[in-house]
């Protein structure tokens, strides 16, 4: 099991395109959005400066990229080419494959979170208490499990051909509508009502509440918890279905 | 070792495996033959716990198939088994070794599969035959009691195929049970102690290659025969020969006039030839030859097709 995680990691770190999109891209996007901001203008209704607000958005976006993009496509392709079958002929327990994928994604998602923090702190002078940095890292990292489960579910749902467009639609849809690229306060009212119930919105809101030194909203926690149960349950169900038809 | 008891597996209306009962014994090298769609792959899937039977039971080494695999007692190489890409051959083999409870050293596994020279090559850059050798390495990464191979030499050239079977024979000599499905009947003939012929999910024949050939009408007899005064050959008396399984008559060539060539398949060539002389005929150019397993296989499955269309 550990050997499979190690090999999955080696392979993820070897894939430059994947590393670029999950580690460099969110930081670059952060600089692009927050670059022209003067560091004092606040995002409406949050009490947070623009760089502080977007630091969490982009860290969440980076973690989302790392856990969602790689896994869904790999799982769908490896189901199709028979690697999943081959692994079932080894002593690896059935769950091992999915767990190794999730674990290696979690390892890759950590740098994508930390790099955004480092860039925000050094380039845009974002200052927070030590506990806030730690809590943010922990919350964003743990929250990414929700989307890791979603990635696994898509991998078991989609075929090798369809997986990329499906992942892209889900990925961009969740990022944009969830307010990771722009605050949902800029959305029209009806769209904001929808966005509030998206797991990505709750995910970023969790981080922003830490920045505001607030307790997280019960609704955000509930949305994340329900999403996790839905995605993980769906992934487990699809996994079992796939195993039976081998 | 391996036991199938009244195993049936359906896909929709098709019975891929239909009441299959068989036992494999330790140390045997067993070939699984059958035309396309005979249920070979499904049989192997059931044996490896990749699919569950609708009815009946499958036992492997005294337990459920899945348990035997988790205990590392079965090494398997499937045609449909894919490989992880973006990693090197050596990395993949090391993974297989790390997963096996009684693993051989990775260098040894690589050498045995003939992969040492391409150990650093990426798996997605391999030829079909090379990928097949990687699958073989994964199947033999550790000390297993049973090795299951589905069409193992597909994509290999003749030299690679010979090297492969030499390695496989070593495995069998060490007391392992080897079960392989193949399209190359000469492989089954040369390597297997026991041959199973599947047809429409049922066991059509089970025995040594020699026994299977005998069952199919193992000897081919051919001779030329001069026609009687009216230029005809008494076909009915030829057809009445003992142990005869098939008969064809053809012209013996333009120069020969009324001479005809007779080809017979017989389950007992000695008795057939004896009776032939007993008819008072004077066969010329008599030849008796053994039937290859391939012809035996074709004869057996064709006869079965004719029996139940």
Radius of gyration of chain B: 24 Å
Structural class of chain B: alpha/beta
Q: What is the typical, i.e. mean, pLDDT of chain A? A: 89
Q: What is the residue-mean pLDDT of chain B, rounded to a whole number?
A: 87
Biggest sheet, spatial arrangement of strands of chain B = 5-6-7-3-8-9
Uncertain segments of chain B are: none
The major beta sheet of chain A can be summarized as: none
Distance between the termini of chain B: 35 Å
Hey, roughly how much beta strand do the residues of chain A contain?
under 5%
Shape descriptor of chain A reads globular
Give the number of DSSP strands of chain B.
13
Protein described:
The complex is a heterodimer of chains A (246) and B (309). By secondary structure, chain A is mainly alpha-helical. Helices cover 76% and strands 0% of the residues of chain A. Chain A has helices at 2-14, 16-34, 50-81, 83-87, 96-123, 130-157, 163-177, 189-195, 199-211, 218-245. In chain A, helix 1 (2-14) packs across helix 5 and helix 2 (16-34) packs antiparallel against helix 3. By secondary structure, chain B is α/β, with parallel strands linked by helices. Chain B contains eleven helices and 13 strands. Chain B has helices at 40-47, 65-70, 89-99, 106-112, 128-139, 158-173, 185-191, 209-215, 235-239, 269-278, 293-307, and strands at residues 2-11, 14-24, 29-33, 55-60, 74-77, 146-150, 177-181, 194-199, 202-207, 219-225, 244-251, 260-266, 284-290. In chain B, a hairpin with a 2-residue loop joins strand 1 (2-11) and strand 2 (14-24). In chain B, helix 3 (89-99) crosses helix 4, helix 3 (89-99) runs parallel beside helix 5 and helix 8 crosses helix 11 (293-307). The longest helix of chain B has 16 residues, at 158-173. The model of chain B has no long low-confidence stretch (mean pLDDT 87). Chain A binds chain B through residues 3-4, 7, 10-11, 14-15, 78, 80-86, 88-93, 244-246, and chain B through 45, 48-52, 69-72, 74-76, 78, 80-87, 91-92, 94-96, 98-101, 135, 138-139.
């Amino acid at each position: 099991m550990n050997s499979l995680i190690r090999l999955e990691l080696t392979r993820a770190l070897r894939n430059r395109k994947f590393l670029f999109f999950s580690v460099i891209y969110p930081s670059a996007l952060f600089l692009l959005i927050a670059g022209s901001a003067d560091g004092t203008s606040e995002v409406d209704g949050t009490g947070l400066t623009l760089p502080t607000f977007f630091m969490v958005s982009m860290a969440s976006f980076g973690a989302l990229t790392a856990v969602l993009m790689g896994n869904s496509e790999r799982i769908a392709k490896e189901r199709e080419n028979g690697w999943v079958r081959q692994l079932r002929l080894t002593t690896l327990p059935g769950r091992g494959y999915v767990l190794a994928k999730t674990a290696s994604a979690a390892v890759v998602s950590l740098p994508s979170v930390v790099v955004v923090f480092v860039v925000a702190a050094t380039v845009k002078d974002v200052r927070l208490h030590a506990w806030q940095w730690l809590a943010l890292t922990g919350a964003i990292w743990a929250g990414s499990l929700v989307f890791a489960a979603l990635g696994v579910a898509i991998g078991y749902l989609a075929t090798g051909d369809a997986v990329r467009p499906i992942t892209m639609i889900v990925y961009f849809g969740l990022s944009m509508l969830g307010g990771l690229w722009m605050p949902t306060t800029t959305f029209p009212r009806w769209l904001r009502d929808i966005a509030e119930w998206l797991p990505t919105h709750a995910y970023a809101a969790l981080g922003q509440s830490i920045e505001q030194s607030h307790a997280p909203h019960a609704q955000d926690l509930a949305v994340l918890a329900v999403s996790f149960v839905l995605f993980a349950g769906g992934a487990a169900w699809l996994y079992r279905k796939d195993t039976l038809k081998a | 070792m391996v036991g199938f008891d009244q195993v049936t597996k359906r896909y929709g209306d098709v019975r891929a495996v239909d009441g299959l009962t068989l036992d494999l014994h330790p140390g045997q090298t067993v070939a699984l033959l059958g035309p396309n769609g005979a249920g070979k792959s499904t049989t192997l899937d059931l044996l490896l716990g990749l699919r569950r039977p609708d009815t009946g039971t499958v036992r492997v080494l005294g337990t459920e198939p899945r348990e035997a695999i988790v205990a590392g007692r079965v090494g398997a190489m499937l045609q449909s088994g894919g490989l992880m890409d973006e990693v090197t051959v050596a990395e993949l083999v090391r993974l297989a070794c790390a997963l096996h409870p009684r693993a051989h050293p990775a260098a040894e596994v690589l050498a045995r599969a003939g992969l040492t020279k391409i150990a650093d090559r990426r798996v997605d850059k391999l030829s079909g035959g090379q990928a097949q050798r990687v699958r073989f390495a994964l199947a033999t990464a550790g000390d297993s009691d049973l090795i299951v191979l589905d069409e193992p030499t597909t994509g290999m050239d003749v030299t690679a195929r010979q090297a492969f079977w030499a390695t496989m024979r070593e495995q069998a000599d060490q007391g392992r049970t080897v079960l392989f499905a193949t399209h190359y009947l000469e492989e089954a003939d040369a390597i297997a102690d026991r041959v199973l012929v599947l047809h429409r999910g049922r066991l059509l024949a089970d025995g040594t290659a020699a026994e299977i050939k005998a069952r199919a009408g193992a000897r081919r007899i051919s001779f030329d025969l001069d026609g009687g005064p009216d230029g005809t050959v008494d076909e009915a008396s030829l057809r009445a020969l003992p142990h005869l399984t098939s008969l064809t008559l053809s012209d013996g060539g333009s120069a020969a006039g009324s001479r005809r060539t007779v080809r017979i398949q017989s389950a007992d060539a000695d008795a057939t030839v004896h009776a032939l002389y007993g008819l008072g005929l004077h066969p010329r150019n008599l030849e008796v030859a053994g039937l290859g397993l391939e012809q035996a296989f074709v004869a057996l499955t064709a006869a079965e097709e004719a029996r139940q269309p």
